[in-house]
User: What shape does this take?
Amino acid sequence: MNSLSTLLSAPELAARRVCADTGRRGGELRAGVQALAAHLRGLPGERVLLACQSSYSFALGLFALWQAGKIAVLPPNAQAGSLEALGPEVAGVLSDEPARPGFGFWLHPETAPATQANPADLPPLPADAALELWTSGSSGSPKRIAKTLAQLDAELAALEVLFGAGLSGCTVLSGVPHGHIYGLLFRVLWPLCAGRPFLEQTSLQPEALVRDLARHAPAILVSSPAQLKRLPECLDLHELAGLTQIFSSGGPLAAETARAWQEALGLAPVEVLGSTETGGVAWRRQSAGPAWTPMPGVLADGDEQGALRVRSVQAGTEALVMGDAVEFLADGRFALGGRLDRIVKVEEKRLSLPDMEARLTALPEVAEAAVTVLKTRRSEVAAVIVLRPEAQAALLAAGKPALNARLRAGLAAHFEAVLLPRRWRYVEALPYNERGKLPTAVLSQLFEAQDMSAAQRRERRND
Assistant: This one.
């Protein structure tokens, strides 16, 4: 496998297929990077926003920025407002979409003419070449995280050691974006270094995934718990028999979902535990049990509060605490006990939000549940519920207050009355973001919208 540092100067890159759907090859990528880097070197400023929809354009822009000695800044999402907010912080933007005003420059990754590139003209990239990403912001505001080439290369080497065998000749399909650490590594950088072609566009919808797999099997699916849960509800998983490996990250994969994939394809998804700060930490297949195995080069232990703490090259020089309760097994693996930062106090009583969510999903009416605490005049526990189909009829027949009371009664054996949800919201699907996360702010907004609608109804009655 090539390293990121020497990938562009590798002689074999020229003939290597980079994109399975468009037929682009490594020689084209190398020439594009060389031409664009020459253009970027003459532009002022060090930090450049990289916001490309195509994974190929993204890869071209990223390597060109590194070759030009620039820092690639990846936005927290592709929304126009997020890009505009970062405008004052960067010298300009590299994008494959139409230009927006307010930036120092706006350059399509393939604007510069691509001529035949000489590998010798692309020196190895330095270990401190950098990019900036953002944390998911699931429980607060997103935070900027810097990553170096050395950190990324260390993680790619670990992935190839763990999972590379048996993936030769596979195409990489992805249902996750390339602009965050998981998609960046699994969808773009690891395939490039390992010589596995990827698709330029995201295989997000079930019909698109079936079509792409039919064209490009054998294939690897880079996915999320939300997508893996949704797919069995939308199609017959036997249609995906061309998959050789399935990866999942971004949150815990439900045991029921893991079992459905194992039973249909004989292929249990590989779950990867990690974060933007730490990189990959551990992995598991639930067909072999619930415990996690640390990644090569990762040292894991517990801190004074019993939270998972990790050290690794990909995490940087300092130990990082992940906030998950951990219990270590005799064989070096570990079990997780839920997020410690999701233990909250309501009326001076401690409440584990993951525990209440698990109790809710154990009720016969509930398919999925997310619990949060609303900060109003007093703290109120609020539950967002996805009902099972048969419970939808009960909701329509008996009304929401009756169903609220039934679910509260189901929780009453396990929680004190002051901790029971006071607010309920029934939705068709939980509002996972593109990274498979459930941001606290988005859950709270569901109730703000509900409050606004109620206020509007009162106003109409008073008119």
In short: Residues 342-462 form a domain with the GMP Synthetase; Chain A, domain 3 fold (CATH 3.30.300.30). Residues 27 and 320 are 40 Å apart (CA to CA). Residues 440-462 form the longest helix (23 residues). The first strand starts at residue 47 and ends at 51.
